[in-house]
Amino acid sequence: LQRMLSFAVEVDRSPNCSSCKIADVIFPFILNIPVRSQREALLNTMESNLLRCKLLEMMFQHSCDVPTNLPLSLSKILYFLGHSSVLLQYQDEVATWQKWDELLQYLSLLLLSYHTFPLAEHLRSSLSDRMDLIIQKAKPKLQDGDNISQLDIQLKIKDFLGRMQQVLEQPFPVQIKEKVRMLK
Prior knowledge:
The chain is mainly α. It has one domain (1-183). Helix content is 65%, strand content 0%. It is built from 9 helices and no strands. The protein has helices spanning 2-10, 15-31, 36-44, 49-63, 74-83, 96-116, 127-135, 150-168, 174-183. The mean pLDDT is 81. It comes from Odontophorus gujanensis (marbled wood quail). GO terms for molecular function: SUMO polymer binding. This is SIMC1 protein.
């Protein structure tokens, strides 16, 4: 299934458009997966990084009180850091910090998937255009929202930690501290 989804995204004339259509179909199913390990297995084994980006973007849009119209970029990922709440409903009882831990895990996965693959592999271009870009060794085009500063990152991380501290009302577990440091 993962291989078929990857082919469906990458051989289309517009990989960006096809990944949006496929993500629209898959997203309701992800919302109904009750166990974190199953959601992570699905997302981590996804062969199409562009499709993974779209699904994670939809998850974060779903969890924001005020969704944004920004295109997927580093600015949008910072927006998600500042505005996302617990991502999904849980059928099993888990500690509040574990919900925040999952949010940080998916935010890191989104950042890695966005930064490493769709940009580096020209996955926003059609297959024929992509071959030309690879042959020319062209650098991927950055989005307008990819120009962020260290200060932007520092402020968003600080705001996120403050918001999370209000919800948790206890010291952060080691896992949370490590994930925040990794994300930063």
